[in-house]
Write a structure and sequence with these properties.
about 325 residues, Serine Threonine Protein Phosphatase 5, Tetratricopeptide repeat, mainly alpha, globular
């Protein structure tokens, strides 16, 4: 919450723009733990994709006007249905969930908002404005329908990933890329690009297409700067033998989520590959003494690797 408030304070009027929260929040968390390495909140910090408050998210992305418009959109049905107790219950429920979760991620909430806006427009606006609003609504509905082929193709690619069909997933993501560049599907890209680009990057990396994976990861950073993306980019750089860049990305990931072990393991492997035994020993020491939040076989393997490095001294 603290970092979210700082983002709002930086640009309270106009916000950080589309994808502003996903692009700006995790780097702020990284800088905070860089400046406060002994912070007691380090064990609680994890990857944050949403502030769990729709009004704060709208404020970060679009400024105070965006937050006020969201509030107005939720309250708008009460103008028409203010005498119906059910309307007050529905609006109250949505308001509560907007302050504690992310209901706007679900279609049912948007259907409710559309019905409320449509009813208010039909009752209170002049005929010419209603006709223009109807045309706008139909246009938006057509746009939403154009998103279906993209979503179906992305779902197919995700299914291939789950079945370890990396080559088929890459082919499907390639088809998605062509579809996104074709009218009328171009508008869909900004709304789907983050997850699409990250998954595409991972599949390219898994199949050894390192140059293309690096390029896609760089593009993804324009929309979302996350722990997983920094870690994956570090792995790509390590495979490309760009060791300084790999260390930078591993460090970014480690400071974004100090509780995680994977970035430290990546740094350890990189220093061993470069023959820097002093830094490798230092990272191994950190891994061995780092408290474990959630025990797992992967963490046990990383600690065993760190022990081997210490024993090689």
């Amino acid at each position: 919450m603290e970092q979210t408030i700082h983002l709002i304070q930086e640009k309270p009027l106009w916000g950080h723009g589309f994808h502003g929260f996903s692009r700006e929040y995790m780097p702020r968390q990284q800088h905070y733990f860089d400046a406060h390495p002994d912070a007691t909140t380090a064990q609680l910090a994890d990857e944050i994709k949403h502030p769990l408050n729709e009004f704060l998210l709208a404020w970060v992305n679009y400024g105070v006007l965006g937050a006020l418009l969201l509030l107005l959109g939720i309250l708008l049905p009460l103008i028409v249905f203010r005498r119906h107790p059910l309307a007050w219950m529905v609006v109250g429920t949505i308001l509560v969930f907007c302050t504690l979760s992310y209901p706007l991620n679900y279609p049912l909430t948007w259907i409710y908002l559309a019905i409320g806006a449509g009813a208010a427009i039909h009752r209170y606006l002049p005929f010419k404005v209603r006709r223009a609003s109807l045309a706008t609504g139909v246009s938006l509905a057509v746009c939403l329908l154009t998103a279906l082929p993209c979503d179906i193709m992305l779902s197919r690619a995700h299914n291939y990933i789950q079945r370890s069909g990396h080559s088929r997933a890459i082919a499907t993501y390639g088809e998605c890329k062509e579809l996104f560049s074709t009218f009328p599907f171009t508008w869909v890209y900004p709304f789907r690009c983050h997850q699409y680009l990250y998954n595409y990057t991972y599949e390219l990396y898994s199949m050894g297409h390192l140059d293309e994976a690096r390029q896609t990861a760089t593009e993804c950073l324009q929309y979302a700067n996350s722990y997983n993306l920094q870690l994956l980019t570090g792995d790509i750089c390590q495979m490309q033998q760009e060791y300084d860049s790999a260390i930078t990305h591993y460090h970014n990931a480690a400071q974004m989520c100090p509780v995680r072990f994977a970035p430290l393991s990546g740094m350890l492997q990189t220093y061993r590959q470069t023959g820097d035994t002093i830094k490798a020993d230092s990272i191994a020491q950190i891994i061995l003494h780092k408290p474990v939040k959630v025990p797992s076989a992967e963490i046990d393997a990383m600690k065993e690797e760190a022990k081997r490095v210490k024993n090689e001294e």
